[in-house]
Amino acid sequence: MMVGVSDDRPPEESQxxxxxxxxxxxxxxxxxxxxxxxxxxxxxxTKTLAVANLTPGDPVSIIGDFARLSLVRNPGAAFSMATxxxxxxxxxxxxxxxxxxRIGRTLRSLWWAIGLGMVLGGALGNLVDRLFxxxxxxxxxxxxxxxxxxxxxxxxxDSAIVCGxxxxxxxTVFGFEPNGTRVGHGKADGAGESSAA
Length: 197
Prior knowledge:
The structure is a single chain. By secondary structure, the protein is mainly α. The chain is 56% helix and 10% strand. β1 (60-63) and β2 form a beta hairpin. The longest helix has 25 residues, at 29-53. The protein is globular.
């Protein structure tokens, strides 16, 4: 009888040991936050250097007229749109930050974490300008300093937001989900994709 009791217990233990660790990818909030923090730091550093070393209206040429450093204080959004609605843009940026962090709490895809981390870092970088730069809180002008060809002057935060958004669109188009699975694939494929995405 004792042999029967010992035979009953190991299957229960083996079921609990092998249940989920291989099929569920780890949460990626930490990855998202690290990427956002690095980009935020880079954005703040480059803006500080630009303000200290560049003069508005006096661009510095890097590659002829194609690439230059040109200090601009932008009260609006990208392409200088909504220049009279700085306070609204500040609220939108704050909402983006809150939304990304909420999504990040359940995130399991590495690529989604990278994309959302870029968007979060960029949104925080420009939000800091809106809150703390002149002319005042919620009205601050964003520091832009990179001019490439005909493209409007931008900064590291803008680049992060755009690249992150493009990555998220690509992931969505190809069916990669934030939870680490891929649309249209079975469980085995989903598990395989989850480790890559």
